[in-house]
Design brief:
mainly beta; Rossmann fold; five-stranded antiparallel β-sheet; four-stranded antiparallel β-sheet; globular
Length: 504
């Protein structure tokens, strides 16, 4: 017992030592996994893995984040997670932090598995505020039939959050179908599952497209005048249905039926509805409609037909830009050059060339955490203060990496032997000229997932041993439209292999 007490005391002192010194000490002793910023920028959260391999959530006073100092308000370890044999979970992990108020937040516990890379969502949520002694369990629907995902944290309303829930229904003796709903859940009570006031529930049974359900606020963010866009399907066809609310009830028949090549709809300024996808299934682009009752039209993005990210600033519900896949490179296409977000993004592009730049803005747009990444950088985190016109380094996902030794990934496209446009990613060993052995790394799925030119440790390990690497987004891959994704059906062992061979 004495040994255990001494060990705990040493661990506590070690943790305090990290934060009684400079930011460099923290960066040297911790691997930074994620960052978030409270709605008005007063508190910064850092999810870090320490030298003991444990994940810790630190709450930092963002107003005192000056002169390379970290002032810790609070800290939590990742709560223990019960074992689940189906997933071979070996440890718990914190899946990001979502703020539900100026001082309140929730986070989901994920599992680390020996069978899967990355994190496994469990449906177990915890809640806390900046002064909590420890987080409290909020929702525990882990591995149940009724699945829930966070839809909108309502950061200006600390009493509620919106969850999106899908539950299986027994039909003709089979658990084949789902309904989907958006549910308003109180934050001051513990729930065994996603329970609360149902804002909308689909009237039609559906299968794979249920999780596209959403309640979308229109008419100047008036919550009394919402719009719902839901997915529904049968064994042969799939659609999106747009419903309006009429008084206290939803209309019985949808105002508009959309093909499922349109996805991720959101409401912009002046009741515009934005979508990702396409009407012809040939790309994954950005579309917009000026009315709720008409089909959208694609936004002109030049030769960047497929988008990889959408950029927003709190000043507008409309996006100020997109990250486009232009075939041989990624490029930011600005939709509103006058936006404050666009101006800040352009200034950082000059400071961090050849990088992907992402923002996490406060509600007033005065502060943001910034993530800088690329195929040679797993991620550096910064704090942007627009009033002070300053950007301060927070930490890195891997402080020990020498980025100058890593090889850049190159995008390219080619035409397959039967005439389809296929995209790929190539990485050549640095400082080695001429032909070298090539290793092909196919992505999983194979239907739906696709490779992007982001940091991949396996690529750099192989490059360091003198091997080039190739990733091919063959037919069946997502990210390039439904036609390419569906073209791989029933030909995984033939044409999919031909695409990979043609890429070589």
């Amino acid at each position: 017992m004495k040994y255990i007490k001494n060990f705990l005391l040493l661990s506590f002192l070690y943790s305090q030592f990290l934060f009684s010194n400079t930011l460099e000490n923290f960066s040297e002793n911790s691997k930074l996994l994620g960052v978030s910023l409270s709605p008005y920028g007063d508190t910064l959260t850092l999810i870090a893995e320490n030298n003991f391999g444990e994940e810790v959530l630190y709450l930092i006073d963002a107003n005192k984040f000056v002169d390379n100092k970290l002032t810790v308000i609070n800290s939590f370890g990742a709560p223990n997670l019960r074992q689940d044999g189906g997933y071979s979970i070996t440890a718990s992990s914190i899946c990001g932090v979502t703020w539900t108020g100026p001082e309140d937040f929730i986070f989901q516990i994920c599992g680390k598995s020996t069978r899967n890379e990355g994190q496994i969502a469990t449906g177990i949520w915890y809640k806390a505020n900046i002064e909590s002694k420890k987080p409290k369990k909020y929702i525990d629907s882990g591995f149940s039939r009724e699945r829930g995902s966070l839809y909108d944290p309502l950061p200006l309303d600390p009493d509620y959050v919106l969850f999106q829930s899908g539950d299986y229904q027994k039909l003709n003796g089979l658990w084949d179908f789902e309904t989907s709903a958006v549910i308003k859940v109180k934050t001051n009570k513990r729930n065994a599952s996603v329970q609360g006031s149902t804002l909308f529930r689909s009237k039609q049974y559906c299968t794979e497209d249920c999780q596209r359900t959403g309640i979308f606020i229109s008419a100047d963010n008036d919550p009394e005048n919402p719009v719902a866009i839901i997915g529904s399907s049968d064994y042969d066809e799939a659609y999106l249905h747009l419903y309006k609310k009429e008084g206290d009830s939803w209309e019985d028949n949808p105002s508009l039926v959309l093909p499922t090549t349109l996805k991720e709809p959101f409401v912009g300024e002046d009741q515009k509805i934005w979508y990702r996808g396409s009407l012809d299934g040939k790309s994954d682009t950005l579309l917009v409609s000026n009315s709720l009752d008409v089909l959208p039209k694609p936004v002109n993005l030049g030769n960047c037909k497929n988008i990889r990210d959408i950029y927003f600033h709190p000043d507008s519900l409309d996006p100020f830009g997109v990250l486009g896949d232009c075939g041989d490179s990624l490029k930011v296409v600005y939709l509103d050059n006058s936006s404050k977000g666009a101006r800040w993004h352009k200034s950082l592009v000059n400071q961090f060339p050849n990088s992907i730049i992402r923002f996490g803005w406060t509600e007033d747009g005065k502060k943001a955490f910034v993530v800088i990444s690329s195929s040679t950088n797993p991620g550096d985190f910064y704090l942007l203060d627009t009033d002070k016109k300053s950007i301060n380094y927070i930490g890195s996902s891997n402080q020990s990496l020498d980025l100058d030794l890593l090889s850049k990934s190159e995008l390219f496209k080619f035409t397959s032997r039967d005439g389809m446009e296929i995209h790929g990613i190539y990485s050549h060993p640095k400082d080695i000229e001429g032909e070298v052995p090539l290793i092909v790394i196919p992505h999983g799925g194979p239907k739906g997932p696709y490779d992007r030119p982001r940091y991949d440790p396996w690529v750099h390990v192989l490059n360091s041993f003198g091997y080039a690497t190739l990733k091919v987004n063959f037919r069946s891959s997502g990210g390039y439209g439904d036609i390419l994704e569906d073209a791989g059906d029933k030909v995984w062992g033939t044409k999919v292999i031909d695409d990979i061979t043609d890429g070589v």
